[in-house]
Design goal:
heterodimer, A: alpha/beta, Aconitase, domain 4, 8 helices, 7 strands, B: alpha/beta, Aconitase, domain 3, 15 helices
């Protein structure tokens, strides 16, 4: 996983609530057996005027000029401002993969759906939760000022606006450490392999009926 | 000892270790796997040179991509086929307790075959790379939908990294009126608390109306906990729970069964247990529900009307309602009963079990599909559900009505296979999500119970199923 320490980047605002993972990456693209290549299909149904299918050359597809990410001023944005309950619905990790593959490294919103929020951290994508009034203010500032950038500093858990306003945010310490170091969860957990094994033995003795294992049919 | 909720008990029983900041490792009993969210996880294992910790915990099936048209014996779409073939190869290479591949008579939707085979048992931690894993909470399981990185993590370590959620109880008191089903209960709950109402919480569904539901009905309710924002939904163990498992193939037998039952009976919240949040609904006031928008919280009942976006005080909600009505092609103030449908879908992990098919058949018996309804798909949740329905003659009722009787799979719930809506088509659907494009690009989904879907197929528009039900039901 790529580390996340600091990011000073252009911001794009996606002004709708309850953006679900079907909208982030529609189901026809879930047939891929790989982790990469989803960026061109991010928000596919909103971004293009035709119906997207896997393998299409997206550079030749008609774009929806009204969709925010198609506006010239937001090209190259790496921070996405979002509304409440972003990432609701399906558990598909293809959603954070698509956001990352497109170029986003951080999301800022008032709330995220649980599974999506968790999936982001597994991939080095930082979802930042701020109070709704603060997010509202950022939407206003971003829309009013072309070229609007934010500077995110994970070690100090702060965001600095172009006017040098500093906004602090919360993040749990384990997730922060993993992002700062680019740590792989599995490697970390396997440090406790002996403890897991001991637990498993005791658990099996207590609940043998969960281990009725027959050969595969 | 402190009084505990059911969630507290399940958490404590599986807690391997906990860091000072609350980050914990939770031991996983059952890992359900399907073809869409697993290939990258197996690939990750392979690249790191790791092996599954406990293959005996794995039960796999192919459900999302499989065709449900009985005449299609192979998967035509080459990309869909590759995903299913990749699952075959991964299970062959890494192993599993059970695998129900495409064409297996017991193949079906992962959340239907888990309980049906006894792979899901009360008190287990169950995970699957699928948000509707909350379904298994109906059996007092701690069941989480997880992402693909977590699928890989569970494969490699048998544990899930979690922080404990807050406790929430949704109590539905009283008894359900005729014509009002489990689906109506959960849609009404979502309408009340919103799609983010349960975020950060594990929900226990309780109260007389929940207790009176069959196990199938409880699965429907827990299935859509995620649509209320909760990763986990649960119902406590009672005699119905135990009876359900008595004859299941993977359930323990003999002395082990007795030992298990002694433990399972403890899987209820203590009377004094405290919940961080509680919501109470009165079952007697519930009516058949119909969604009108593009989020499950955009719901009303069959006597209601499409709302006016101007009636929402919150500008974000007003904006969402405006977009939803534009997408759905609906005018504010339209009575729900005047909305005509083009297709009807009866199926999905929410409503494809035998009881759902019986409820639909009870409405359909002796009637015909309305001429304006182009297609009605009835897609049983598993091969075994299909077999039972045929033994009961339900398939004949559907076929005589002009419905299509299909093979098991996820089908038009998310339209990864060939079953989908065309742009602008409107569907009465027993599935769980009415998101934009969910059932096909440009398709318009209204979520309803199986009985309401069947009634819409007969009438050609939404109609109060209570008026169509035979007096005896």
């Amino acid at each position: 996983m790529e580390k996340f320490i600091r990011l000073d980047a252009l911001v794009a605002p996606l002004d709708r609530a309850n953006v679900d993972t079907d909208a982030i990456i529609p189901k026809q693209f879930l047939k891929s057996i790989h982790r990469s290549g989803f960026g061109p299909y991010l928000f596919d149904a909103w971004r293009y005027l035709d119906r997207g299918e896997p393998g299409m050359d997206c550079s030749k597809r008609p774009k929806n000029p009204d969709f925010v990410l198609n506006q010239p001023r937001y090209q190259g944005a790496q921070i996405l401002l979002v509304r409440e309950n972003f990432g609701c619905g399906s558990s598909r990790e293809h959603a954070p993969w698509a956001l990352l593959d497109y170029g986003f490294r951080a999301l800022i919103g008032p709330s995220f759906a649980d599974i999506f929020y968790n999936n982001c951290f597994k991939n080095g994508l930082l979802p930042i939760v701020l109070p709704a009034e603060e997010v509202d203010r950022l939407f206003g500032e971003c829309e009013a000022a072309p070229g609007y950038r934010l500077a995110i500093d994970l070690p100090s858990q702060s965001i600095t606006t172009p006017e040098d306003r500093v906004i602090s945010f919360e993040i749990d310490s384990f997730r922060k450490e993993c992002l700062l170091n680019g740590w792989d969860d599995i490697g970390l957990t396997l440090r406790h392999a002996d403890e897991i094994r001991r637990f498993e033995e005791a658990y099996r003795a207590r609940h043998p009926y969960y281990f009725v294992e027959e050969s595969a049919a | 000892m402190n009084a505990k909720t059911l969630y507290d008990k399940l958490w404590d029983a599986h807690l391997v270790r906990q860091e000072p900041d609350g980050t914990a490792l939770i031991y996983i009993d059952r890992h359900l796997i399907h073809e869409v969210t697993s290939p990258q996880a197996f690939e990750g294992l392979r690249l790191a040179g790791r092996k599954p910790w406990r293959t005996g915990s794995i039960v796999a099936t192919a459900d999302h991509n499989v065709p449900t048209d009985p005449s299609e014996t192979e998967i035509r779409d080459p990309i869909s086929r590759e995903q299913v073939v990749t699952l075959d190869q991964n299970i062959r290479a890494f192993g599993a307790l059970r695998y129900f591949p495409f064409h297996d008579p017991r193949q079906g939707i992962v959340h239907v075959i888990g309980p049906e085979s006894g792979a899901t048992l009360p008190g287990m931690t169950v995970v699957c790379g699928d948000s509707h894993t909350s379904t298994h909470g109906a059996f007092a399981c701690l069941a989480h939908g997880i992402g693909t990185s977590e699928v890989e993590h569970v494969l490699a370590t048998q544990c899930l990294i979690q922080k404990k959620a807050k406790n929430m109880r949704v109590r539905v008191d009283g008894s359900l009126p005729p014509g009002v089903y489990a689906k109506d209960v959960i849609l009404a709950i979502i309408g009340r608390i919103g799609t983010a109402g349960g975020t950060g919480h594990a929900i226990e569904f309780a109260g007389e109306a929940i207790r009176s539901l069959s196990m199938e009905g409880r699965m429907t309710v827990c299935n859509m906990a995620i649509e209320a924002g909760a990763r986990v939904g649960m119902v406590a163990v009672d005699d119905k729970t135990l009876d359900y498992f008595r004859d299941k193939p993977l359930a323990p037998k003999g002395e082990l069964w007795e030992q298990a039952v002694d433990y399972w009976r403890t899987l209820v919240s203590d009377p004094e247990a405290r919940f961080d949040r509680e919501v109470v609904l009165d079952a007697a006031t519930l009516k058949p529900q119909v969604t009108w928008g593009t989020s499950p919280e955009m719901v009303t009942d069959i006597e209601g009307r499409v709302p006016d976006p101007a009636s929402f005080a919150d500008p974000v909600k007003r904006d969402a309602a405006e977009r939803a009505l534009a997408y759905m092609g609906l005018e504010p103030g339209t009575p729900i009963g005047e909305i005509r449908v083009d297709q009807v879908f009866i199926g999905s992990c929410t409503n494809s079990r035998i009881e759902d098919l019986r409820a639909a058949a009870a409405v359909v018996r002796g009637r015909k599909k309305a001429p304006n309804v182009k297609r009605v798909l009835v897609v049983p949740g598993s091969g075994l559900v299909k077999k039972q329905a045929e033994e009961e003659g339900l398939h004949r009722i559907f076929i005589e009505a002009g419905f299509e009787w299909r093979d098991p799979g996820c089908s038009m719930c998310l339209a990864m296979n060939a079953d989908r809506l065309e742009a602008g088509e409107r569907c009465a659907s027993t599935s769980n999500r009415n998101f934009e494009g969910r059932q096909g690009a440009g398709g318009r989904t209204h979520l309803v119970s199986p009985a309401m879907a069947a009634a819409a197929a007969i009438a050609g528009h939404f109609v109060d199923v209570r008026e169509l039900l035979p007096a005896s039901v």
